[in-house]
Amino acid sequence: MTLDARSISRLKGVNPHLVAVVQRAAEISPVKFIVTEGLRTKERQAQLKAAGASTTMNSRHLTGHAVDLAAVVDGEVRWDWPLYHKLAAAMQKAANELEVPIVWGGSWKSFPDGPHFELDRRTYPA
Ligand SMILES: [Zn+2]
């Protein structure tokens, strides 16, 4: 699959290495997906934190080091975890190919975030 126009526009301001991983993942992923969010403003982050959708004001979205993806099945966005494990596997494979270390939010213990992928802070500090 290729990314749709809206997904591509949402990658604006995102680190080009992460954009390359997302684009490669789109080619190899068995699950279709869209990009729901890339670069985020401080104001929006504050709103998300207030709403309980995020736990931090130190989000990697603020610096263009993170993206959120949504799985699409039969034209509909789905939030089922098994889809995100497949998506994460495709993202990891793409990242390995391109030698860009990434971290999947779905692997976080305290606040698992299945749609979230970010560049590894050790290689890509803010
Ligand atoms: Zn995110």
From TrEMBL:
This is Peptidase M15. It comes from Caldimonas thermodepolymerans. It holds the Pfam family Peptidase_M15_4. InterPro entries: Peptidase_M15C (IPR039561), Zn_M74/Hedgehog-like (IPR009045). Residues 54-119 form the Peptidase M15C domain. The lineage of its organism: Bacteria, Pseudomonadati, Pseudomonadota, Betaproteobacteria, Burkholderiales. It comes from the Bacteria. GO terms for molecular function: peptidase activity.
